[in-house]
């Protein structure tokens, strides 16, 4: 390989690397939409716990989540450490969501302070994961 060919190959590699790192930032959008959707779901089913409301809110949430999963699967690049990052975010969210639901229905039915604060706390793990994904893609670009 000649010097010019090597320089061209390095330039192409830098271009591809920069493009890939930038494309890995999609996870922040996913995290924000997931957090907003589950925040709305938690508040809605906590403050208006009728069968119709729970069914409707959960159905809307499932449609949004299917859209988010489809969006995620169509991305050509994943953030660095995506498996662990997403797994930790979903574990954190699921734990907060479960505690909020079980304790809320048992001890704080229709208490706005409980449900809004629980929903806000549940939004933290995916938002932190999204922030870490963006931060990681900036550090490696």
UniProtKB/TrEMBL annotation:
Protein name, per record: Uncharacterized protein
Keywords, in A-Z order: Membrane, Transmembrane, Transmembrane helix
Annotated organism of origin: Nocardiopsis sinuspersici
Transmembrane segments: 26-48, 54-73, 85-108, 114-134
Highest classification ranks of the organism: Bacteria, Bacillati, Actinomycetota, Actinomycetes, Streptosporangiales
């Amino acid at each position: 390989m000649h010097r010019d060919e090597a320089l061209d190959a390095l330039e192409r590699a830098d271009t591809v690397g920069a493009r890939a790192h930038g494309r890995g930032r999609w996870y922040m959008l996913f995290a924000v939409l997931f957090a907003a959707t589950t925040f709305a779901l938690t508040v809605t089913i906590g403050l208006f716990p009728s069968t119709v409301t729970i069914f409707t809110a959960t159905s809307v949430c499932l449609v949004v989540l299917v859209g988010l999963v489809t969006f995620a699967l169509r991305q050509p690049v994943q953030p660095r450490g995506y498996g662990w990052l997403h797994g930790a975010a979903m574990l954190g969210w699921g734990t907060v969501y479960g505690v909020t639901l079980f304790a809320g229905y048992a001890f704080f039915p229709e208490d706005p302070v409980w449900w809004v604060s629980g929903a806000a706390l549940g939004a933290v793990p995916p938002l932190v994961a999204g922030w870490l994904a963006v931060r990681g893609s900036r550090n490696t670009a």
